[in-house]
Amino acid sequence: MKNKVIVTGGCGYIGSHTVVELIENNFEVVIIDDLSNSSKKTVERIHDITGVLPNFINVDLKNELETNTVFKKHKDAQLVIHFAAHKAVGESVAEPLKYYQNNLYSLLNTISAQSQNGINNFIFSSSATVYGLPETLPITEKTKTQRPFSPYGNTKKMAEEILDDLTKSNHEFSAISLRYFNPIGAHESGLLGELPNGIPNNLMPYITQAANGNIEKLMVYGNDYPTKDGTPIRDYIHVVDLAKAHVIAVKRLLNKEHEKPLEFFNLGTGIGYSVMDVINCFENTTGVKLNYEFTERRAGDVPQLYAATTLAQEKLGWTAEKGLHEMIKSSWDWENNINN
Ligand code: UFG
Q1: Which residue segments constitute the domains of the chain, with CATH numbers given?
Q2: In whole angstroms, what is the distance from residue 253 CA to residue 255 CA?
């Protein structure tokens, strides 16, 4: 019998890559997704890659009744990975309630439905945004968390606090919160990748769309930061490396290897690249010249963020394997694939 894992948001960017890795590691997967920022085609693409068609259920997790029904039906699952959430930082500033309602109701409905049905393992899709503006670098899991700059970020921090309370009160329930740095890249098959709805929010889809002419010009937000070339530094991580870390976290919980009821891990490479590093690497990797212009700083951006990777290495035995060149090449291949 295969272990069954429920993946909310399994048609999304990180979710879909994780579903592939789970299937390749012999897990049975049930995807719950309302397709609000993803496509049903992803399920077929997962099938094309793995030869397995995961069970797909279209449910809005804000709907408590429907959520309960699905979890009751799949009470033989051992674990839930919760990706389903809105994630656009700027939109969350403009429409905070949309973010609090969606991200928090979905979380609350998921963890109550699963625990009522005896599914007591949970992996949460968190973000380095919970560290706010860190005082020291690299960021370790002991670095103090702070109120994030956006309502989106705050839903991640609040979710971690909810999980802290839950794991303290319900001793059956265990959770791992994975704090991602900057996920980019796409699946090597060219069948899965990031599909931003409308104008992208993040650097990589902006670059690929500026390169193929979808967007006229890439705006680089600020070149007066206290960094080597004045542009902000981030820790970019390949989405497939990230997906692999989820499978390791699943096994850790199922094998009861976790040391605390709620554990936190940073997922990054530990290497910081500036926006100009990414632009230069893109041009060198693809041979395509980018049309870009320096403009004002973007509100809420911090100069530098990169992870300390020691804890994930020691406890999960996980290290990111793919470098910036590979991240960029796969993002570009994916961009060309979706436009053909
Ligand atoms: N940038 C540009 N031009 C663009 C887009 C981005 O110059 O068109 C710059 C940003 O100013 C920033 C860097 O590229 O310096 C990276 O920006 P992203 O939007 O790709 O990523 P962020 O670091 O801002 O955001 C990421 C995640 C969020 C998370 C946040 C904080 O996408 O989910 O880190 O941890 F909240």
Answers
A1: 4-185+237-268 (3.40.50.720)
A2: 5
Burial (CB count within 10 angstroms: exposed 0-12, middle 13-18, buried 19+), residue 311: middle
**Protein residue with its CA nearest to atom 31 in ligand 1:** 129
Tally of CB atoms within 10 A around 50:
17
Q: Express each pLDDT in 283-330 by its tens digit.
A: 999 999 999 999 999 988 999 999 999 999 999 999 999 999 999 999
Rounded CA gap, 206 and 223, in Å?
A: 17
Q: What is the residue with the minimal CA distance to atom 14 of ligand 1?
A: 203
Residue where the block lists tokens 């449910």: 59
Q: How much is the pLDDT for 195?
A: 86
Query: Which residues make beta-bridge pairs with 267?
Result: 180
Considering only CA atoms, which residue is closest to atom 15 of ligand 1?
232
What pLDDT shows up at residue 314?
98
Backbone angles phi, psi at 307, to 5 degrees: -90, 150
Distance from C-alpha of 144 to C-alpha of 128, rounded to nearest angstrom: 11
Q: Which parts of the chain have pLDDT scores under 70? A: 339-340
Contact 15, 83 (CB under 8 A): yes
Does the active-site annotation cover 206? no
Ligand 1 geometric centre to CA of 202 (Å) = 5
Question: What is residue 201's predicted lDDT score, i.e. its pLDDT?
Answer: 84
For the whole prediction, is pTM greater than 0.85?
Answer: yes
Residues lining ligand 1, CB < 6 A?
A: 87, 89, 127-129, 153, 182, 201-203, 206, 218-221, 232, 234, 275, 298, 301
**Best residue for ligand 1 mutational test, from 86, 89, 143, 227 (most atoms within 8 Å of Cβ):** 89
